């Protein structure tokens, strides 16, 4: 079953969120510290991913072009509207000290869990070789991260399991066709630059968690597609120049 890895990943996020929900009644100062630790950890992850780029100029160009496209279509606003729609249906969970935003949890969780090389590589392995080990490993990591995120951002994190499952599942389903069309060296280059771009986006998420400055990370998502296009164009037309 090609999508079992994606399914397990999605379920791990659900389980982690539910466990985090049970542990959400913690002192506010502890919650703030946990959020700061999460922010620092996410920034570190983003830096590690960013340094995996082989041609950082591609990362810069992708981010610049992607930002223009993202601002034009305003993906951040659309994602937040979707989160707010979910929030109106299920209502934010409250305690005596704070109100958790379903929208914020959904958007933050989706961006963290979807962006990254493990999602792409793991889904390709599931589809091409029937090897789900990468996505199973990612599931463990995402389950733990969702637990921590839920203690600070609330139950909205659970809804990020849906786009994660769809994203990884679609890649797994089309992996055989992708493998037949895309040469291995091109695929390696695409993964490296997509990881680099994704690292910058993850870094921005960490900055948002620390509340240093508000960055519309969703509006940078087109940068990932732009990176793929640039790598393909370079590989096709400029490889031997």
Give your account of this protein's structure.
With 241 residues, the chain is an all-alpha fold. The chain is 76% helix and 0% strand. The chain contains eleven helices and no strands. The chain has helices at residues 4-22, 28-50, 56-73, 75-90, 102-114, 117-128, 133-153, 161-173, 175-181, 184-209, 222-237. Helix 6 runs antiparallel to helix 7. It is globular. The chain starts with a helix and ends with a helix.
Please state the CA-atom Rg, rounded to the nearest Å.
Answer: 18 Å
Q: Per the principal axes of the C-alpha atoms, what is the gross shape?
A: globular
Helix content: over 70%
> What are the secondary-structure elements, in order, as H or E?
HHHHHHHHHHH
Summary tags:
single chain; 241 residues; 11 helices; mainly alpha; globular
Outline the fold blueprint.
Elements lengths: L3 H19 L5 H23 L5 H18 L1 H16 L11 H13 L2 H12 L4 H21 L7 H13 L1 H7 L2 H26 L12 H16 L4
Helix pairs in contact: 1-7, 1-8, 2-7, 2-10, 3-10, 3-11, 4-5, 5-7, 5-8, 6-7, 6-8, 10-11
Q: Outline of this structure?
A:
With 241 residues, the chain is mainly α. The protein has eleven helices and no strands.
């Amino acid at each position: 079953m090609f999508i079992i890895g994606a399914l397990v990943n999605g379920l791990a996020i659900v389980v982690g969120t539910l466990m985090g929900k049970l542990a959400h009644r913690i002192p506010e100062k502890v919650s703030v510290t946990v959020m700061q630790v999460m922010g620092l950890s996410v920034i570190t992850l983003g830096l590690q991913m960013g340094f995996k780029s082989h041609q950082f100029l591609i990362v810069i160009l992708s981010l610049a072009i992607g930002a223009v496209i993202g601002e034009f279509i305003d993906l951040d606003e659309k994602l937040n509207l979707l989160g707010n729609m979910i929030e109106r249906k299920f209502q934010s969970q409250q305690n005596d000290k704070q109100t958790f935003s379903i929208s914020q949890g959904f958007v933050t969780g989706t961006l963290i869990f979807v962006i990254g090389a493990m999602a792409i590589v793991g889904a390709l392995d599931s589809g091409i070789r029937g090897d789900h080990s990468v996505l199973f490993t990612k599931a463990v990591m995402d389950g733990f991260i969702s637990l921590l995120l839920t203690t600070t951002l609330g139950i909205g994190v659970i809804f990020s399991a849906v786009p994660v499952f769809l994203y990884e599942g679609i890649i797994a389903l089309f992996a055989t066709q992708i493998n037949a069309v895309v040469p291995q060296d091109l695929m390696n280059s695409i993964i490296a630059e997509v990881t680099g771009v994704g690292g910058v986006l993850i870094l921005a998420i960490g900055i948002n968690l620390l509340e240093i400055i508000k960055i519309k990370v969703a509006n940078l998502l087109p940068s990932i597609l732009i990176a793929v296009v640039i790598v393909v164009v370079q590989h096709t037309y400029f490889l031997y120049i």
